[in-house]
From TrEMBL:
This is ABC transporter substrate-binding protein. It comes from Micromonospora coerulea. InterPro entries: Bact_solute-bd_prot1 (IPR050490), SBP (IPR006059), TAT_signal (IPR006311). Signal peptide: none annotated.
Length: 440
């Protein structure tokens, strides 16, 4: 196995250029349109080297490379050329690879771009491999398998399952004499709880991060009322719903349940070290459940994990990230076999652990859970197990334009809680710009 470790992305490559580069890939790859990949490039019995690319830290890299080495031990003619880096610049790096005509055979993506990649025919359609069991998804929760489908075609497989979660400082709450939050508490009760924390701390710590710009929280709040974030290529909600959401958090601010606008803007990034629950500015923050072990490394206080406020049925079996195959790979059958191995092999599952989240296969998950010893990882397993029987149906993955909608929501929320804009004006602007982004 040849490993290429994190390298800085080429400057000046942005997401727009990446999508433009990928749009031209059929020519770079030798012509894909109207041609089945396996028929175009039959696999012989000679040595095969597959390229694999993902984002993550050193712990994820070590586990992933070890799992791939295990595959090579069982399939000696297959070797891997691996590349990994932080999420920042990851898609820029893919653009660089696309420009050079060397898109990885197997790569990691998330639901931000899944529908877009499928529609641009960048990813391999895995449906027939699922149908003939070469890619065995029988042990995936139905909703998790569904969340890898676009237009009823399987175009990706969950690398693991996660859930939107509330991470709270257990030791802090104990010191303040405030009870812990609980899964399923109504949103307004949660706001009241957060205000109680602020008062108990004498204003030194706010009860909760302000999630008004967090699409995960908004999506679950909408689903708890029978709505959705999206309906096809449009927003699934209107001005009235978003105004209610913003006004809920205006009430929270008036009760000092949330921190200052400057702190919220500082934390509105993907940098976990800046989450306010670990910097000591709030008692609770919003995160993905599988991120708890990493968050725990940033604080000496013990952290806890519960579901977001509202009905747990608003949640669904959600992919933390996916594995997808490049449609132009010369070895689609072998790539699918590797993907099947990473998904269904118990030994590989034990190596991968729960760093990306719970193993996608419930059969593998049971074996892996028994071997977890880390306290934070045990909480991740317990959270996922407790939530499994309460989950609702999976929606379709977000449509093209989701990344832009997420950015617009953050900007709208920040303009409201900083006072730069009124809630009604920010709401109207977001609805118009959000729908325009989805229509592009």
């Amino acid at each position: 196995m040849r490993a290429q470790h994190p390298a800085p992305p080429r400057p000046g490559v942005d997401r727009r250029r990446f999508l433009g580069a990928l749009g031209g890939l059929p020519l770079v790859a030798g012509g894909l349109a109207g041609c089945d990949a396996e028929e175009r490039a039959p696999v012989d019995d000679g040595p095969i080297e597959l390229s694999v690319f993902w984002w993550g830290g050193a712990q994820r890299a070590e586990a992933t490379e070890k799992a791939l080495r295990l595959y090579s031990q069982q399939n000696p003619r297959v070797r891997f050329r691996v590349t990994w880096q932080d999420l920042t610049g990851y898609y820029d790096r893919l653009a660089t690879q696309a420009t050079g005509g060397n898109v990885p055979d197997l790569f990691q993506i998330d639901d931000t771009v899944l529908a877009e990649y499928a529609q641009r025919q960048i990813v391999l359609d895995l449906s027939r491999y699922v149908a003939d069991k070469r890619l065995d998804l029988a042990d995936l929760p139905a909703g998790l398998a569904r969340y890898g489908q676009v237009d009823d075609r399987t175009v990706a497989v969950a690398a693991a399952q996660t859930g939107a979660a509330l991470v709270f400082n257990r030791d802090l709450l104990h010191r303040l004499g405030v009870p812990e939050p609980r899964t399923g508490m109504p949103w307004r009760e949660y706001v009241e709880w957060a205000g109680r924390v602020t008062r108990a701390s004498g204003g030194r710590v706010a009860g909760t991060m302000d999630p008004s710009g967090d699409y995960r929280a908004l999506w679950l709040w909408l689903r708890g009322q029978g709505g959705e974030l999206y309906q096809g290529r449009q927003l699934g909600f209107g001005t009235a719903e978003l105004l209610d959401w913003f006004e809920l958090w205006q009430v929270a601010r008036s009760h000092r349940a949330t921190p200052s606008a400057a702190l919220v803007e500082q934390a509105d990034t993907r940098d976990l070290s800046r989450q306010l629950v670990v910097t000591g500015h709030t008692a609770a923050s919003f995160a993905w459940s599988h991120q708890l072990p990493e968050l725990q490394r940033y604080t000496d206080d013990e952290l806890g994990l519960v579901g977001l406020p509202g009905s747990p049925a608003a949640q669904w079996a959600r992919a933390s990230m996916y594995w997808s195959a490049f449609r132009g790979t010369r070895h689609p059958g072998v790539v699918v076999d590797v993907l099947n191995f990473l998904t269904t092999n118990v030994a590989a599952g034990r190596i991968l652990g729960v760093e990306r989240g719970l193993n996608a296969s419930t059969a593998v998950r049971r074996f892996v859970a028994d071997g977890v010893t880390d306290r934070a990882q045990k909480q991740v397993v317990a959270f996922g197990t407790a939530l499994d029987d309460l989950l609702g149906p999976a929606p379709a993955p977000p449509p093209k334009g989701h990344a832009r909608v997420r950015a617009l929501l953050i900007a709208a929320a920040e303009s409201v809680h900083s006072g730069r804009s009124g809630a009604r004006a920010a709401t109207s602007r977001f609805i118009a710009e959000g729908n325009a982004a989805l229509a592009e």
